Amino acid sequence: MEAKVADILFERIQKEAMIAFVQKNDQNFSEAIDLVLGNQYPLSWRASWILGHAMKKNDGRIRPYVDKLIDLIEPAEHDGQQRELMKLLFKMKLDEEQEGKLFDICMNLWEKIGKTPSVRSTAFKFILDIIKKYPELKEEIAFVMEPQYIEPLSPGIQRSIKKQLAAINMKVVE
């Protein structure tokens, strides 16, 4: 009996072996997508993680599910699952409507100071990508660059964010 993607996600095998298994055929890849869309933690989180490593940039096999993936981010109960869903979507070419929806979600996640720093910094990366694409939005996001949003983050993430802001001629509002 051949193993299923759900089975290998709980085995102690090398990441490369998991990636190879998911890439082995379209059925395994589709099964991984179904597990992500099933939104059952920790299965969907692990499937998101492995899919992020197995997929190609702007992967056509994921394209039909982009809207559903965006819709899964906010209701996901676990921070790691939210982060992995965002990372999947960052590899996809989004249309303006999808970008707008994901931008709003990322802004909401960034503003939640109690969120895990890795989720907030992942959301911040997308916010910056959108600001680079649409510089007119800089003024609209200035309020979320206040110290209360930055200070809860680790010193390393703070430095990274300040450096990224400086690259687009913005800074933390003191």
Keywords:
174 residues; mainly alpha; 2 domains
- The CA-CA distance between the termini, in Å, is 61 Å
Q: Treating each run of at least 4 consecutive H or I residues as one helix, how many helices?
A: 11
Anisotropy-based shape: elongated
- Percentage of residues in DSSP E strands: under 5%
C-alpha Rg (nearest Å)? 17 Å
**How many domains?**
2
Notes on the protein architecture:
- Helices cover 64% and strands 0% of the residues.
- The chain is elongated and about 55 Å long.
- Helix 2 crosses helix 4.
- The chain has 11 helices and no strands.
- It has 174 residues and is an all-alpha fold.
- The chain has helices at 5-8, 15-23, 26-37, 43-54, 66-73, 79-90, 96-111, 117-133, 138-141, 147-150, 155-167.
- The termini are far apart.
- The protein folds into 2 domains: 1-93; 96-174.
Detail the topology: elements first, then pairings.
Elements: H1 5-8, H2 15-23, H3 26-37, H4 43-54, H5 66-73, H6 79-90, H7 96-111, H8 117-133, H9 138-141, H10 147-150, H11 155-167
Short characterization:
InterPro entries: ARM-type_fold. The chain is mainly α.
